[in-house]
Amino acid sequence: MSLEATIAIQAVREAGTILKDGFLFGSHEVTQKEDHSPVTDMDYQSSEMICSTLQKTFPSHTILSEESPNALKRTIGNEPTWIIDPLDGTSNFVSHIPLFAITIALVIDQNPVVGVIYDPLHDDLFFAEVGKGAELNGKRMCVSKQTHTKGAMLFAGRGYRDRDKERHGQIIYALEKQTTYFRRLGTAAVMLSCVASGRADSVILTGNNPWDVVAGALLTREAGGRVTDYCGKEWTLESGDMVATNGLIHDEIIKITQEQIASC
């Protein structure tokens, strides 16, 4: 395991302790950011812990947390960049719904090379390094073997912007006429980790930000799955939407999403 992976895992575990204690014993005031997404003191405390841990070991690396100033306006360059969501699933957290996670990804030349997702309540640690496969709690994991969307476990999620709502509603309506019902868990990180570990078969995500999905994209690919945009093009940091699957049902889903996107 690389030094980068080791420190990333250390950081999510330390931040996980903060979030677990806050979830079990705290009460939190909620405010809204400029994109209308909720944020709490726990988001900021977790972010500060992770950023501090990474900065100490990798002072020359760029760090982009969801809670960084002007995070929505920052661009990701080719230099080593840590992309962090210190609390994915804030609405669940505030409502005491036990579905949230921490995500950290290291991106070099705009390609993810390390990805970690940590669910502190269930103590599930999902980890991948590019070219080395993916693990859940230290054991190799792989995507499911489901071959059809009928009977598959399908997830969905979207961003907070009005255009995301409209676009997502259109896509979901078309998909659910031909597939199983799509479940929404309120956290992209947890849904992607479920696909990577074979607990679910696919997730579609509309308008999510890089910190929501980069680690999960790497996990899914390293576990044997496939990750594209709605048009079937390989997902990149510039992609606005994501389809992550076990690979076996990917074309079946993409055939439907392509019909809904005029630009395809």
From TrEMBL:
EC number: 3.1.3.25
Cofactor: Mg(2+)
UniProt: Mg(2+) binding residues: E66, D85, L87, D88, D212
GO biological process: one example: inositol metabolic process
Record field: catalytic activity: a myo-inositol phosphate + H2O = myo-inositol + phosphate
Keyword Magnesium attributed: yes
Molecular function, one GO term: inositol monophosphate 1-phosphatase activity
InterPro entries in UniProt: IMPase, Inositol_monoP_metal-BS, Inositol_monophosphatase-like
Name of a matching Pfam family: Inositol_P
Alphabetical keyword list: Hydrolase, Magnesium, Metal-binding
Family: Belongs to the inositol monophosphatase superfamily.
PANTHER family for this protein: INOSITOL MONOPHOSPHATASE, INOSITOL-1-MONOPHOSPHATASE-RELATED
Name by which UniProt lists this protein: Inositol-1-monophosphatase
Organism: Candidatus Uhrbacteria bacterium CG_4_9_14_3_um_filter_50_9
Lineage: Bacteria, Candidatus Uhriibacteriota
